[in-house]
């Protein structure tokens, strides 16, 4: 998979999530303090958005970014145990 394919796959997942939460592009942009065209760019997998746009998108959808190493698989049970019980605090 090349970078463009990854961007498009990530964008599609984010769009699917946004729609499953009944969030409009406008609402995501407003909640994330970004422009609507940035929301569209992220979902389309375009290269013209910044990391700030991606982070704003995630904030607008109330999502967190998790990064793991390819060569070091994550144990989901350990990850869940390390999370606070009430993440909003």
Structure summary:
This protein has 89 residues and is an all-alpha fold. Helix content is 58%, strand content 0%. It has one domain: Orthogonal Bundle (434 Repressor (Amino-terminal Domain)).
Please give the structural blueprint.
Layout: H1 3-20, H2 25-32, H3 36-44, H4 51-60, H5 76-82
Helix pairs in contact: 1-3, 2-3, 2-4
Q: Number of domains in the coordinates? A: 1
Q: What percent of residues are in strands?
A: under 5%
SSE order, as H and E? Answer: HHHHH
Task: Give the CATH class.
Answer: Mainly Alpha
Enumerate the spans where pLDDT stays under 50 for 5 or more consecutive residues.
none
Coarse morphology: globular
Span between termini: 38 Å
- What is the count of DSSP helices, taking H or I runs of 4+ residues? 5
Main beta sheet strand tally, sense and closure: none
What structural class do helix, strand and pairing data support?
mainly alpha
**Average pLDDT metric:** 87
CATH homologous superfamily (4th level) name: lambda repressor-like DNA-binding domains
Notable features of this structure?
89 residues, mainly alpha, 434 Repressor (Amino-terminal Domain), 5 helices, globular
What does it look like?
With 89 residues, the protein is mainly α. It has a single domain (3-82), classed as lambda repressor-like DNA-binding domains (434 Repressor (Amino-terminal Domain)). It has five helices and no strands. Helix 1 crosses helix 3 and helix 2 packs across helix 4 (51-60). The chain is globular, with a radius of gyration of 14 Å. The relative contact order is 0.14.
